[in-house]
Structures are given as structure tokens and as C-alpha cells.
């Protein structure tokens, strides 16, 4: 049975947001596993990690979601609040169990917050009608050869790779609504594509010579201890990594190539920054002949007019990661470059929210036929 959707009362002004909500109310959720009640039972796989914990935090006030399963690997067997005391007040949260002990017949949807490669082995064994929002990179690349090239092994579930819908919500909303398996985008691809895709699509910037300088908070690397993420190796510094080889490049190029209608090759360098969460992409782009930076800004403003979570800041105002901390918003702006014929596009997100669990919930809301913004309208913490 599809759920009836309620209207949300705040924060989603504008024509397109109203359209989205009207459609969500009018159209039933696509057929999939039948829902047992009007509250969906959700399993969070990898709940002892950062993005899994963020799913629990964000869904705690969701009227249509009850988290009934949480899994861990090394942390299995523990009470959830032993691992994440900040979520002790989340009501009726179950303890962490192993994935093998989950009865998937008794859940309505799954958030999969596992490492890539492990993910495809787990998802291919799930009931084939179960709705899944996957936060890993496993189902984002459409071409199996590209996956094998960048991830170093053949994909173990090529059929599912074909079925998956890429969930950059603002660009693929209609496909997301009918998705069964949702490939949630990577954090860098979310931040950069939201700024660049509409400009390429409109032919306002040239597909060559796109340089993306990216910065991420350390939570982007996950919770498992890694030498390169130790406080004394991150604090008081800035670390570039995977220079010229980061696996998000083919994901970004896949989207930008679609937008431009011809192959796009980007230059992309990520950096780890001395902060726990937050992400900025600064993209240096070449303008099409006769186009100005102001026109880029106007294009982004009209593309995202009425979007609940993507905002173009007033002219001249610079987006900072602190402006989105803890929220599902993406803020952006465009600036002229001193080099003639070029412009600078800056976007910021919280890597754990719009870059992962928040966008995942935005997508699940659409997949279930609920209002897209449910439980996601929290504004940023500042300072
Ligand atoms: N962090 C971020 O900003 C973003 C992350 N992502 C992606 O989301 C996914 C989760 O990321 P994140 O939460 O940061 O990762 P974490 O490292 O914080 O958490 C990983 C989770 O997976 C569990 N796990 C690890 N290995 C196995 C295994 N072999 N079998 C079963 N469970 C296992 C861990 O359990 P335990 O701890 O109990 O061992 C833990 O719950 C990854 O694919 C990541 O790339 C996507 C966008 C942004
Ligand atoms: C800071 C940091 O290490 N970030 C991660 C990206 C997080 C993410 O989006 O990863 P997935 O593509 O696996 O989902 C990285 O660079 O690998």
C-alpha cells in the first residue's frame, strides 16, 4: 500500500518545490514490497559508521520511518548508544547486529552505508523487490569497464549496476521517484556537479579546461582509523591526496559528459582540511564566447528556483562550509575571474548530509512517495 503524503508547512517556497510536493501527494509510490503499515521499517546497514549514524540522527524525527535494524561489523553486539552517545535520546533504537542476522522480509527499505566492494556483495543477496538507498560508490558508474578501471576489480553485480538510478536529486528527480535501487552520489560529485551541470547543459561554459579544487572535512574518510586521518597528521595543515587519480573523477565526468553532450575530462584535486565535516568545491571554468559570470549566476538561480535544498547566494556573497554544517543545503555562487573569459563557481555542502545521508533520505522520501523535504529542513548550525 502506498503512503499518503502530508504537506510540509515550512521552508519550501517557490513554484518547483510546490510542484514536487503536489506530485508527491498525487502519485502513489511505485509498486515494490508491500508496506505493512503506514510507517516504514528501515534497516541501516553500517550503522556504526559516520553516515549510518547520520541516517539515525536525521530519521529520528521522521513521521513515516521507524528504524528497526542497525548493523555493525566489529561493533556488532553493542548497544547503539555505547557507540554513539550523542544519539542516546533516539527512541527505540535497536542494538547493533551482524548483517547475516537480519530478517530482510521484515523491513520495507534499506539504507546501505557500507564500504564500496563489500556493498555489492551484500546488496546482490537482498530480496530483489526491496527498496535500497546505497551510499557507497558501487552502483554509480554505468559502464562496468569504467568501474573495473577505477576500482581495481570486476563488478560482482553488473545487472544491479544497470538497474540502479543515480540519485543526484535535483537533476534526476523523476527517475529517483521510481527507483528501486538508488545509487546515492559521492560527496565531491554532488558538490561539484550541482554547480557545473546546469552551466554545461546550457552551453554557457566550455567542456574543456574545467579545473575543480575540492576540500573535505575528515569525516569524509569514514570512522575506521587510518594513519593519514590521525589528528596530529590533519590538524594545522592541509593535505592534498589522490592527486590526478581520485575515483570520483569518472563519476563527475559521467554526469558532466551527459550535460555537455560530448566527452568532458576534468582536472580534480581533493584536499583534507582541518575540520570534522564540510566540503567545498571551487571550479575554474572557461566561458563560452560572449558569456559573462553574471549570466552563469543567473542560469544557476533560474535552474534552482524553488528547489528546497539548493540556493544561489546573493551576488558577491561567498559560500562557506559553516553555512551548511549539519544541514541538507547546497549553497553556491559564481564570481568573475581576473583572467578574461573565465569564471569561478563555488559550492558548499555538509559531506555527511547533502553529500551522503541527507541526500539519501531526500531520495528515499521520493521513492516512498513522501514529501521530499520530510525531516530534512533543519537549517545549518553557525558558527
Ligand atoms: N563519510 C562520508 O562523508 C561519505 C561516505 N560515503 C560512503 O558511504 C559508505 C559509508 O561511509 P562511512 O559511514 O563514512 O564509513 P565508516 O567507515 O564510518 O563506516 C563503515 C560501516 O560499515 C561497516 N562495515 C565495514 N566493513 C564491513 C563488512 N565487511 N561487513 C559488514 N559491515 C562492514 C562498519 O562496521 P564496524 O564499524 O562495526 O566495523 C561501519 O558500520 C562508504 O561507502 C563511503 O564511501 C559517501 C559519501 C560521503
Ligand atoms: C575525505 C575523504 O577521504 N573522502 C572520501 C570520499 C567520500 C565519498 O563520497 O566516498 P564514496 O565515493 O566512497 O562514497 C575519499 O576521498 O575517498
UniProtKB/TrEMBL annotation:
<dbReference type="InterPro" id="IPR023013">
    <property type="entry name" value="AGPR_AS"/>
</dbReference>
<keyword id="KW-0028">Amino-acid biosynthesis</keyword>
<dbReference type="InterPro" id="IPR000534">
    <property type="entry name" value="Semialdehyde_DH_NAD-bd"/>
</dbReference>
<dbReference type="InterPro" id="IPR036291">
    <property type="entry name" value="NAD(P)-bd_dom_sf"/>
</dbReference>
<dbReference type="InterPro" id="IPR050085">
    <property type="entry name" value="AGPR"/>
</dbReference>
<dbReference type="InterPro" id="IPR000706">
    <property type="entry name" value="AGPR_type-1"/>
</dbReference>
<dbReference type="GO" id="GO:0003942">
    <property type="term" value="F:N-acetyl-gamma-glutamyl-phosphate reductase activity"/>
</dbReference>
<dbReference type="Pfam" id="PF22698">
    <property type="entry name" value="Semialdhyde_dhC_1"/>
</dbReference>
<dbReference type="GO" id="GO:0051287">
    <property type="term" value="F:NAD binding"/>
</dbReference>
<comment type="similarity">
    <text>Belongs to the NAGSA dehydrogenase family. Type 1 subfamily.</text>
</comment>
<feature type="domain" description="Semialdehyde dehydrogenase NAD-binding">
    <location>
        <begin position="41"/>
        <end position="179"/>
    </location>
</feature>
<dbReference type="Pfam" id="PF01118">
    <property type="entry name" value="Semialdhyde_dh"/>
</dbReference>
<keyword id="KW-0055">Arginine biosynthesis</keyword>
<comment type="pathway">
    <text>Amino-acid biosynthesis; L-arginine biosynthesis; N(2)-acetyl-L-ornithine from L-glutamate: step 3/4.</text>
</comment>
<keyword id="KW-0521">NADP</keyword>
<dbReference type="GO" id="GO:0006526">
    <property type="term" value="P:L-arginine biosynthetic process"/>
</dbReference>
<dbReference type="GO" id="GO:0070401">
    <property type="term" value="F:NADP+ binding"/>
</dbReference>
<keyword id="KW-0560">Oxidoreductase</keyword>
<dbReference type="InterPro" id="IPR058924">
    <property type="entry name" value="AGPR_dimerisation_dom"/>
</dbReference>
<protein>
    <recommendedName>
        <fullName>Probable N-acetyl-gamma-glutamyl-phosphate reductase, chloroplastic</fullName>
        <ecNumber>1.2.1.38</ecNumber>
    </recommendedName>
</protein>
Amino acid at each position: 500500500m502506498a503512503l499518503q503524503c502530508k504537506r510540509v508547512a515550512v521552508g519550501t517556497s517557490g513554484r518547483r518545490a510546490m510542484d514536487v510536493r503536489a506530485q508527491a501527494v498525487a502519485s502513489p509510490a511505485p509498486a515494490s514490497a508491500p508496506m505493512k503499515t503506514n510507517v516504514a521499517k528501515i534497516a541501516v546497514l553500517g550503522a556504526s559508521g559516520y553516515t549510518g549514524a547520520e541516517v539515525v540522527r536525521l530519521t529520528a524525527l521522521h513521521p513515516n520511518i521507524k528504524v528497526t535494524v542497525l548493523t555493525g561489523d566489529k561493533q556488532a553486539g553493542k548497544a547503539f548508544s555505547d557507540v554513539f552517545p550523542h544519539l542516546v535520546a533516539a527512541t527505540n533504537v535497536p542494538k547493533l547486529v551482524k548483517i547475516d542476522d537480519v530478517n530482510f522480509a521484515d523491513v520495507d527499505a534499506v539504507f546501505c552505508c557500507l564500504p564500496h566492494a563489500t556493498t555489492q556483495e551484500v546488496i546482490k543477496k537482498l530480496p530483489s523487490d526491496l527498496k535500497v538507498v546505497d551510499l557507497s560508490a558501487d552502483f554509480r558508474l554505468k559502464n562496468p569497464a569504467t568501474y573495473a578501471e577505477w576500482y581495481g576489480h570486476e563488478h560482482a553485480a553488473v545487472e544491479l549496476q544497470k538497474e540502479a538510478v543515480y540519485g543526484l536529486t535535483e537533476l534526476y528527480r523523476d527517475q529517483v521517484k521510481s527507483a528501486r535501487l538508488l545509487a546515492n552520489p559521492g560527496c565531491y560529485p554532488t558538490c561539484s556537479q550541482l554547480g557545473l551541470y546546469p552551466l554545461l547543459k546550457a552551453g554557457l561554459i566550455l567542456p574543456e579546461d574545467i579545473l575543480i579544487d575540492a576540500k573535505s572535512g575528515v569525516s569524509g574518510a569514514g570512522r575506521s582509523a587510518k594513519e593519514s586521518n590521525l589528528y596530529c597528521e590533519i590538524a594545522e595543515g592541509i593535505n592534498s591526496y589522490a592527486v590526478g587519480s581520485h575515483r570520483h573523477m569518472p563519476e563527475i565526468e559521467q554526469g558532466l559528459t551527459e550535460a555537455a553532450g560530448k566527452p568532458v575530462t576534468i582536472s580534480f584535486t581533493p584536499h583534507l582540511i582541518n575540520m570534522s565535516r564540510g566540503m567545498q568545491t571551487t571550479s575554474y571554468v572557461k566561458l563560452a564566447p560572449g558569456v559573462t559570470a553574471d549570466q552563469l549566476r543567473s542560469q544557476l538561480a533560474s535552474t534552482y528556483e524553488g528547489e528546497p535544498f539548493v540556493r544561489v547566494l546573493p551576488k558577491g556573497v561567498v559560500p562557506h562550509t559553516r553555512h551548511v554544517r549539519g544541514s541538507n543545503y547546497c549553497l553556491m555562487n559564481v564570481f568573475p575571474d581576473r583572467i578574461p573569459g573565465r569564471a569561478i563557481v563555488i559550492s558548499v555542502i555538509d559531506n555527511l548530509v547533502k553529500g551522503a545521508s541527507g541526500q539519501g533520505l531526500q531520495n528515499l522520501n521520493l521513492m516512498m512517495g513522501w514529501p521530499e523535504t520530510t525531516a530534512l529542513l533543519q537549517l545549518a548550525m553557525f558558527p
